[in-house]
Design goal:
CATH topology: Double-stranded beta-helix
CATH architecture: 4-Layer Sandwich
Number of domains: 1
Largest sheet: 6 strands, antiparallel
Number of helices: 4
Number of strands: 19
């Protein structure tokens, strides 16, 4: 499979597949394709994995696109202004991405719910902190809200991130939800009650324009129901 990411801040990834090669997507991200790309809707791993993907914010079923009778082309577009990043997934080299951050991947990539090591992350992280893990083998594409900023964390090194700005991290990283210190800071600081602490070793990708923040900024200007 060959690919090209284009489109600037309204990105699309165009993938060229050899005969018999397949790709998966979960959110209707396909925007155009050649006529020899065959589509099949599948649970891809059984009902257990399907419900796990649904819990992490994706659809119950996946769409599988296969090149039939020769080389085929298919393109997937981001749902929000930002960027698309490609990752090579292999055993021991998986990534964890934000809810609904998965765009498309080669058929050998598997999606599952990312379980936090600490219960506080699941309880206080909120719906916006539900994440999913990409494992298996193949190239995967994720979408970033706004610009993508990368940091490489050394073992034991950590970064405090406002919830919603963490787009992805390598599976070697760990996360924890911590409360903002001080009651005055919580009530009047305007930064919320909890922060996300990501600890290395590994790479993290932060995004500059989380869609939830954009929605919050627009809400006062929308007509009331």
């Amino acid at each position: 499979m060959k690919y090209e990411i284009m489109g600037g801040t309204l990105p699309v990834v165009e993938c060229t597949l050899s005969n018999g090669e397949a790709m998966i997507t979960e959110k209707g991200a396909m925007c155009w394709m050649t006529e020899n790309m065959k589509m099949e809707t599948t649970s891809n791993g059984g009902i257990g994995k399907a419900f796990g993907r649904m819990f992490s914010g994706e659809a119950l079923f996946q769409n599988r696109y296969t090149a039939v009778g020769g080389e085929g082309m298919i393109a997937f577009a981001s749902s929000f202004p930002g960027s698309i990043r490609a990752f090579e997934i292999s055993k021991g080299n998986g990534i964890v991405v934000q809810k609904s951050g998965f765009l498309a991947a080669e058929a050998g990539v598997e999606l599952s719910v990312f379980f936090q090591k600490k219960l506080s992350a699941a309880i206080f992280g909120g719906e916006g902190f539900i994440m999913q893990k990409l494992s298996g083998n193949g190239t995967a594409f994720i979408e970033i809200d706004g610009a993508a900023i990368e940091y490489e964390l050394a073992p034991g090194e950590s970064m405090v991130v406002d919830t919603g700005y963490l787009a992805a991290m390598t599976e070697s990283c760990s996360v924890e939800i911590v409360s903002v210190p001080g009651v005055k800071n919580m009530l009047f600081g305007g930064e919320g009650v909890f922060n996300t602490v990501v600890k290395g070793p590994g790479k993290i990708i932060l995004q500059t324009m989380p869609i939830n923040n954009v929605a919050g900024c627009l809400r006062p200007f929308l007509p009331a129901k």
